[in-house]
Design a protein that fits this description.
Layout lengths: L15 H7 L4 E6 L5 E5 L3 E7 L6 H11 L8 E7 L2 E7 L4 E2 L7 H18 L11 H5 L16 E4 L8 E3 L5 E4 L6 E4 H16 L4 H8 L5 H13 L1
Antiparallel strand pairs: 1-2, 2-3, 3-5, 4-5, 6-8, 7-10, 8-9
């Protein structure tokens, strides 16, 4: 994977564990998320994600999910994972692709790839074989039910990405979907749990007006009730 635009400040020190994993190879800062998680490229062939202790970033969960999903859909190959008193880390092989939010892509190309990738994921990964759960019932255990009410009926159970925001789709050199990343929440759920949030994120990254292309590419009509519910659940969670 090639780096998207970084979100690092000058004051971010490289964690000692990351320096150890780099073993003298060049380190390139790639991303810092809102919970303090850090991503670096090691040389040209590997990436390392580091979650500081107390940041509540489930990298162990992601390692297991990536290892399982790799048999069915393109995801980064897990090289190693571990933890110490300072945090957790996950090392994966690089993929020849760029994030859907990379400035090289025009918006229509990126949105088309995001929808195509989700459709391939939902259709290609077997629900009956999946040991991971992202069900609405489980997620509701962590929110105030009075603020959201009862969920809509299940439309279709699929293996969901769990964090289908635009940056987590990778496009290859030809501008087509090639893989997904950041899959710590992957699990079985109604497909609208992914569709509502993926389409939600389009306005954050590309501005308004892209949902029509997204749903047309996926091949489904928008469902206002399910979209509203799963977006609220996302916000509350």
């Amino acid at each position: 994977m090639q780096p998207p635009e970084t979100d690092f400040g000058d004051d971010i020190a490289v964690p000692a564990a990351v320096t150890m994993l780099a073993a003298g190879r060049p380190l390139t800062p790639i991303w810092r998320n809102v919970l303090g998680g850090l991503t670096y490229r090691i040389g040209t062939d590997y990436f390392v994600k580091f979650a500081p202790r107390g940041s509540d970033l489930p990298l162990r969960n992601e390692a297991g999910r990536l290892a399982w999903a790799a048999s069915y859909t393109p995801v980064p190959e897990v090289v190693s994972s571990g933890a110490d008193d300072t945090g957790e880390w996950l090392v994966t092989k690089a993929i020849n692709g760029w994030s859907a939010v990379d400035k090289r892509w025009d918006k229509a190309t990126a949105v088309t790839a995001i929808a195509t990738g989700l459709k391939e994921l939902h259709n290609g990964v077997p629900v009956k074989e999946c040991p991971f759960d992202w069900s609405v019932e489980r997620r509701l255990e962590k929110v105030d039910r009075d603020k959201i009410g009862n969920p809509p009926a299940i439309d279709r159970l699929v293996v969901c990405h769990g964090d289908p925001c635009a940056p987590n789709t990778l496009l290859g050199p030809d501008g087509r979907w090639v893989a997904h990343v950041d899959m710590a929440a992957l699990g079985v759920a109604d497909r609208w749990a992914d569709l509502a949030v993926a389409s939600y994120s389009l306005s954050w990254n590309y501005g308004d007006g892209w949902e029509e292309l997204f749903f047309a590419t996926y091949g489904i009509a928008p469902d206002p009730e399910r979209i509203a519910y799963y977006r609220l659940l996302w916000d509350l969670g």
